[in-house]
From TrEMBL:
Domain of life, source organism: Bacteria
Pathway: Cofactor biosynthesis; NAD(+) biosynthesis; nicotinate D-ribonucleotide from nicotinate: step 1/1
Organism of derivation: Cupriavidus campinensis
UniProt function note: Catalyzes the synthesis of beta-nicotinate D-ribonucleotide from nicotinate and 5-phospho-D-ribose 1-phosphate at the expense of ATP.
CDD domains registered for this protein in UniProt: PncB_like (cd01401)
Gene that specifies this protein: pncB
The name this protein goes by in its record: Nicotinate phosphoribosyltransferase
GO biological process: NAD+ biosynthetic process via the salvage pathway
Amino acid sequence: MIIRSLLDTDLYKFTMMQVVLHRFPQAQVEYRFKCRNAGVDLTPYIDEIRAEVANLCQLRFTEEELDYLRSMRFIKSDFVDFLALFHLSEKHVAITPSEKGGGEIDITIRGPWLHTILFEVPLLAIVNEVYFRRTQPAPDLAEGRRRLEAKLALLKAAPYADCVIADYGTRRRFSGAWQEEVLLTARGILGAQLAGTSNVHFARLHNMTPLGTMAHEYLQACQALGPRLRDSQVYALDNWAQEYRGDLGIALSDTYGFDAFLRDFDLFFCKLFDGVRHDSGDPLEWGERMLAHYASHRVDPRGKTLIFSDALNIPKVIELYERFRGRCKLAFGVGTNLTNDLGYTPLQIVIKMVRCNGQPVAKLSDTPEKTMCDDPGYLAYLRQVFAIQPPA
């Protein structure tokens, strides 16, 4: 089995799932899979992927795992009680060759949001691991270790002693075993410079800090769940703050594009949230604009955290650290470059929500190729409502 624990996913899946249980338990959603790599044929692996999904759906949370979740101060007891009864169901997932051909596959997840939200990350990890164990049956682990140790040594070198990173690489990892080795190696070399991991399973096993707050799907769903489309981002942030009462105070800034985020992220939210996460667009420009936005609202940015998490590698981390250190608090989430850098081209695969309660939803990324929506009319309407120009 590739996935051996339902905790083998990102923390923000649980934090969002708790909000869904308490505020949107009847929401119905649809997710779609996309591989951004050209020329990758995944069709030979469909049966193996299906078998791994069937294994995933046999898993239940153990008492030890539930006790671990219960120990987090922002996880509520009724949510843990619900998880004690929870399991994923195969009936919500369809995996087929794409009608487009060319080796593409379609993966569609449909059903209650509460019962499908935990599919995304392990399913992506399954696709990755099946693909790489079939295409690289004898992986060059020595090369992977050499690359890993070189990048960690670069970060460890002075004057970067207070530059810390976290592992955000579960969904695109080479394998579960490799991610675990990466984490243990990074902790051994970096010490306190490794802030933790988004992976709850490995955080529990190895006494690391689990990290994460919200993802795009939460803000996307609020396009269908809120009272008015134009207010959906504010609605999402308000509901989050009411649920967590000061915990998990990092807002995601690019679901509707950064310009729309800044319009909505007013003085109230500037003071209420601990910081903001970057996930698309130019990170240097984003950071400068975010600090200026805080200053324009008379909020000292030195007390706020900027988290960078978009396709980072260690040289990029260092560049961003050198630009912004001393001007704010900083955190860096490194994903694929940590957990899938053995000399092979990693898969750029995603699973994104495309509908909620029968209505199209979309992510208007600051990186145009990250925008995902299967309804062009709705996408145009969303741009109009949030005053976002289409890409040139």
